[in-house]
Amino acid sequence: MASEITLFVNPTAGRGRGARAAQPAASALRAAGFNVRTVLGENPSDALAQARAAVESGTDALIAVGGDGMVSLALQAVAGTRTPLGLIAVGTGNDFARALDLPVQDPAAAGRRIADSLKASRLRDIDLGRVDGTWFGTVLASGFDSRVNDRGNRMRLPAGRFKYDLAILAELAAFKPFPFRITLDDGEAREIEATLVAVGNGSSYGGGMRICADADLEDGLFDVTVVGDCSRTTLLKVFPKVYKGTHLDHPVVSVHRAAKVELLAEGITGYADGEPLGPLPLTAECIPAAVRVVLA
């Protein structure tokens, strides 16, 4: 009897690429001998309920088709189980796929490689972050970057990523560091002025911004990148370095490693995997080997 796997599809990912990607991915998996069923929810909560039901019923793998938002939903269904998670990465950011060195924007090829990996049991257990029962795979953002997300999410126009470019400009105009209290494993609270604090299980967010460039998915620790008190001019100089990860050498940047991180700052929202978690204070824990992923 052929294995049954579940495609978990976001029809809006990448401006419709999620829906278009599902068919060639499913065809590749069926051609490899798998029985494929598709989960397509009416909204995120309905989709998650269906994905959890598929996992509970014993599906042999959950394959998320979309971007980081879809991965975030899928993680809520598979974290803490032994159900493997595969990824057909067709979103706009794809930072989780980058962290795992998975292919992007080629659903048929990704489907074939996932099929081969499942047959060969090429699987990997990786760490996840967890905040109040919500799992995340890449980065928890707080500070300037989360304020940009807040502003961009409030803007109805323009559509797409351009509104976040405008949000960056608006936040830069009003820029000032924020008073943070950060508590790591040692229990010592650090009172600092910071531009942003990023808690990284994975290395990047925002579509390849390597804010926690040295983060390791299997070391049981977060990389906590702190961009300290700096001027607008300094921020503009440091910001372009984030794409290569070379910002970590700048004097205003420090990196800490910890399994538990508590963040407190007034008026700051935390975002993980690009999704809002809620206002600080928040406590993040790194959970070793929390999810099994399919290597494609």
Describe the model:
GO terms for molecular function: kinase activity. Belongs to the diacylglycerol/lipid kinase family. Keywords: ATP-binding, Kinase, Lipid biosynthesis, Lipid metabolism, Magnesium, Metal-binding, Nucleotide-binding, Phospholipid biosynthesis, Phospholipid metabolism, Transferase. InterPro entries: ATP-NAD_kinase_N, Diacylglycerol/lipid_kinase, Diacylglycerol_kinase_cat_dom, Lipid_Phosphate_FormReg, NAD/diacylglycerol_kinase_sf, YegS/DAGK_C. With 296 residues, this protein is of the alpha+beta class. It has two domains: 4-122, 3-Layer(aba) Sandwich (Rossmann fold), CATH 3.40.50; 136-289, Tumour Suppressor Smad4 (Sandwich). The protein is built from eight helices and 15 strands. The strands form two sheets. Strands 5, 6, 7, 8, 9, 10, 11, 12, 13, 14 and 15 form an eleven-stranded antiparallel β-sheet that branches. The protein has a four-stranded parallel β-sheet with strand order 2-1-3-4, with helices on both faces. α6 (144-154) crosses α7 (162-173). The model has no long low-confidence stretch (mean pLDDT 91).
Describe how the helices and strands are arranged.
Elements lengths: L3 E6 L7 H15 L3 E5 L4 H13 L5 E5 L1 H11 L6 E5 L5 H5 L7 H14 L2 E9 L2 E3 L2 E5 H11 L7 H12 L4 E6 L5 E12 L21 E7 L3 H7 L14 E6 L1 E5 L4 E4 L2 E5 L2 E13 L2
Helix pairs in contact: 1-5, 2-3, 6-7
